[in-house]
Design goal:
The protein is mostly helical and 229 residues long. The protein has two domains: 2-30 and 153-221, Helix-hairpin-Helix base-excision DNA repair enzymes (C-terminal) (Endonuclease Iii, domain 2); 37-145, Hypothetical protein, domain 2 (Endonuclease III, domain 1, Orthogonal Bundle), CATH 1.10.340.30. Helix content is 59%, strand content 0%. It has helices at residues 2-7, 11-26, 37-46, 52-64, 70-75, 78-84, 91-109, 113-117, 121-129, 136-145, 156-164, 174-182, 189-205. The longest helix has 19 residues, at 91-109. The chain is globular, with a radius of gyration of 19 Å. The protein starts with a helix and ends in a 24-residue tail after the last helix. The protein binds a DNA duplex (13 and 12 nucleotides) through α3, α4, α7, α10 and α11.
DNA sequence: TGCCAGGCCGGGT
DNA sequence: ACCCGGCATGGC
């Protein structure tokens, strides 16, 4: 029985098994989907609680308007920006959040992402979290996929996958979940990059609230409540 | 058709 | 330290 086998494995082994299984099923994901570091930052804010396809429409609008540069978005009128990013939802708050970030970047880093990213990983995270509108996941996405420093990105999918595998319980918060990965796996940017992308991939199509685990590519790795939901 | 998507903030308890 | 309402479009 596969569940018996998994039951006595250590967390590191289960996490590795999950990764290997996902990679085998889906292959390389080529994340983050974006042409530049700045596009990663914008995408990270726009995708908050929003489907990525909607974000793509918003990004396309910004490009079509020929204002997809740090300086131009810094200068553009907030309402005008909100209009451009409308398809991504919550357009008023997101326009404000983008503006908050840009205002902060120009004030503190002379509008230079390079200067911002040059800092130590932990400092960079603190800095990003100090910006209103940038929370943990958004900050970690920016650090991993734009600054390319090793921090594990956690999202709703990540929690669901770990809970279903019995690695954590429902009460684990963001930092605790992040620690499960970082304390059990090598801190490598390319590895974290691929792992998070694969989790999003499996979460999008299989590991959904009402979906049965039998349909999921990870079914052979499950050990708890494999036949519930 | 209603539900959900790669969250975050601010106010209340 | 949690808990909750608000924010909003588009796809299935």
């Amino acid at each position: 029985m596969r569940f018996v086998k998994i039951a006595h494995m250590k967390k590191a082994e289960v996490l590795t098994e999950i990764y290997d299984s996902l990679f085998k099923s889906f292959g390389k994901q080529y994340w983050w989907p974006g042409d530049t570091d700045f596009e990663v930052v914008v995408g990270a804010i726009l995708t908050q609680n929003t489907n990525w396809t909607n974000v793509e429409k918003a990004i396309k609008n910004i490009k079509t308007a020929k204002v997809f540069t740090l300086k131009k978005l810094y200068q553009i009128n907030e309402d005008k920006l909100a209009e451009l990013i409308k398809p991504s939802g919550y357009f008023n708050v997101k326009a404000k959040r983008l503006k908050n970030f840009l205002e902060w970047l120009f004030t503190n880093y002379n509008g230079s992402l390079t200067k911002l990213f040059k800092q130590d990983c932990a400092i960079l995270r603190e800095q990003l979290l100090s910006v209103n509108g940038i929370g943990r996941e958004t900050a970690d996405s920016i650090i991993l996929y734009a600054a390319k420093k090793p921090t594990f990105v956690v999202d709703a999918y990540t929690k669901r996958v770990l809970v279903r595998h019995g690695l954590i319980t429902e009460d684990y918060n963001y930092e605790a979940i992040k620690a499960v990965f970082e304390e059990n796996l090598p801190k490598e940017v390319s590895f974290y990059n691929e792992y998070h992308a694969l989790i999003v991939r499996v979460g999008k199509y299989y590991c959904k609230p009402k979906m049965r685990c039998e349909e999921c590519p990870l079914k052979d790795v499950y050990r708890t409540r494999p036949r519930q939901n």
